Amino acid sequence: MTLIQDTAVATSAPAARPRRRSGRREGRTAFFFLLPSLLGVLLFLVLPIIASLVLSFTNWKLLGKPAFVGFQNYIRLFTADPQFWTVLRNTLFFTVEYLVLNIIISVGLATWIASLKRGQRWFRVVFFLPTFTPGIAVAIVWMLIFAPGGFFDFIMKSLSLGVPNLLTDQTLAMQAVIIVSLWANVGYNTVLFNAALDMVPPSYLEAAKIDGASAWDRFWKIRLPLISPTLFFGTVMTAITSLQVFDQIYVMTRGGPGNATATLGYAIYQRGFQNFQMGYASSIAWVMFALIMALTALQFWLQRKWVHYDN
Amino acid sequence: MKFTHQLAALALAGTAILSTASFAQEQVNLTWQMWGDEKDTPLFQSLADLVTAEYPNIKVTPQFSGWTDYWTRLPVLASSGQIADLVAMQSMRMPSFYGVLEPLDPFIAADNFDKSAFESSIISGLSADGVQYALPYDVGPWLMFYNRDKFAEAGLAEPKPDWTFDDFKAAAEKLTSGDNYGYAVQAFDFVAQPVALGAEYFNDANAFDLTNPGYEAAVGKLVDLVAVAKASPVFASGAGAQTGSGRFAAGNAAMVIDGPWSLLTTQASVGFKVGVAPLPRGEGPSRYITAGSGWGISAASQHKDEAFKALKVLTGPKAAEILASAGRALPGRLAEQKFWYDVAAKDIAGARETLQYSFDHSTPFRLNESWNEFENLLTQYLPLALNGDNTTDAVLADIQSQLP
């Protein structure tokens, strides 16, 4: 007994050391294999992020040498910039309206497609098409439709509807941007939610049906809770991208008319690449980053209330 | 051992210096960056060839990028040290970008170069704080393009060089009916037209002063033409720069403010006769701003002397003749402007009289380093006044509050 134990100890002890050594060797090999992508991440992700943080404390104007200005950019942003609070309000307004409409429409479309007896694949492709169309191209086509005297105005005039031009109206311009964003991006969530709906075990739905649950109840009490993890993922991702909205605004309105559609993403571009205030633009970028982090954290906190995981 | 090392190093350095020195005498390759299209390559290559013909050891290679990209790339190329030796510059961008260019005054003085051969307004346009940074290849005042066919149809007399804003307004209103407009306003009109009316957007210290009564009144006149008389469509902030000219070309608007740089391409692309007139004046005498472009030497260039030699040829009489005859540019050189009038623009009514009248009444185009911001804000905010959402004075006050 002791002999066996002793030999076991004796054999296992020397065996453990080479294993650790080989583990270290494997780790080193793994490190060298990871090195190319690690370098890429460092060079193109970590370094620029650090650089933009440093820049946000300077007055760099792209040409010439930057000078350190402390928190001056942030102070200017929160106290002196006449546009910042409007820009922030516009960004949140866009995000809330777009997010709510996007989720409602995509869940609706996904449920409708899932209920179809035939042609499901065809509809999925149709609704997914705009997702792989370049955003700029989509925005340009819509801008031509909405431009003063364009196709949209022509339709409204033919129908004798007194709708003013969307792009030159202060309240409607943001709605035009939202319409375009929805058209371009609803398909992604639709396909995502549709796939989740297809994963709901039919036996649950059949059982509920036998027990007398109406279609409405089956949707709210079985399907929706079962796809809630996917719904949560879709909501978080859509919220993040909508806080960063830029291309539609760049093409369609340039933040106008007035500041009706000026959002954080556009403000960064305007300050940085039109006015060449790189330091100031970097500080806005960090405020945007903080905002996205905070809202995403809030969503993760809220998910405990409505997301159901099976395990 | 040490000594031989030093000797070897010295020898190496010596050959390096010798080889670069002899290389410089043999061949200098200059890069030449400008906005434009790949299809412009043969034209500008023929200019580059003029340089090699005159100085066989200098070879110039043109590089193109699109107009909008050019201005985004320029500061990036400059700060990353990849800027070309010869750099295209437009007069309105000079206050933002003169830092990337080498002052030309020492070269001009050393060479006894004659600046008076160029139109004076563009020589000052391509300088900053009294220092010359580029030499011009083209120049032009903002003009009123008009549709001659529509004027004839409406029984209107074509505008005279000294026509007034009231004449212009009457014509625009008469030419407006249904979906056809007499005029299509664009954002830049709120710079060129107020100046023609005698207004100033700057104070004496060259800072923005948009709320002065003169500028407010002049902008108000244009706004009324759109918001009250409805003689022009409203432009949208997103596509502000294009739609006015687009409507004119489509025959949907009878007048538009533009410059000689787009006159020939406009005439070539439309199915009606284009005429040009100076911008309408106010009560006082006429006053017109001009803009133009030229080429300068990058401050980072390793071959500044050769670059200046090349620059003299590229902005010289022969090059001006080539660009003028091809209709590419109304030359900044006065003597060669005749090639543009006589060859390229011979079919355009009033081109010569209008341009000469405008040059005779040109006024310095006042700019500062926030000019880009100002133009962007005009495009972004003016639609509010044009569609009656806000008053002219409130919009100008809003723009003013966002400018330094």
UniProtKB/TrEMBL annotation, chain A:
Main location: membrane
Signal peptide (from-to): none
Membrane topology reported for the UniProt record: Multi-pass membrane protein
UniProtKB keywords: Cell membrane, Membrane, Transmembrane, Transmembrane helix, Transport
Keyword set includes Cell membrane: yes
Pfam families: BPD_transp_1
Gene3D superfamilies assigned: MetI-like
Entry GO CC: plasma membrane
Similarity field: Belongs to the binding-protein-dependent transport system permease family.
Record's protein name: ABC transporter substrate-binding protein
Annotated organism of origin: Devosia insulae DS-56
